[in-house]
Specification:
The structure is a single chain. The chain contains three helices and no strands. By secondary structure, it is an all-alpha fold. The chain has one domain. The chain starts with a helix and ends with a helix.
Length: 77
């Protein structure tokens, strides 16, 4: 059981999960509730996806500024 808990902790840390998220997931693991563990893992995944989408929106904004700047530079030539 300790190996599984260590693997879950390591994987969640690597995935950028907060300590609170890890503690919640490990609590479910220790109680032997696979449905609860899955719920916690999916919740963490959902939050990481939201972060990913926000990062993508930021990149999109920068891409827009780059294109606009290129258009301005080309039209002034």
């Amino acid at each position: 059981m300790k190996d599984i808990i260590d693997q879950i902790r390591t994987a969640m840390c690597d995935a950028g999960c907060s300590e609170a998220e890890i503690v919640d997931a490990l609590r479910e693991c220790r109680t032997g509730d696979p449905a609860g563990l899955l719920h916690q893992l999916r919740k963490c995944r959902c939050l990481r996806m939201e972060e990913l989408h926000e990062s993508q929106r930021r990149v999109d904004r920068l891409d827009y500024l780059i294109r606009q700047t290129q258009k301005t530079a080309q039209s002034s030539v």
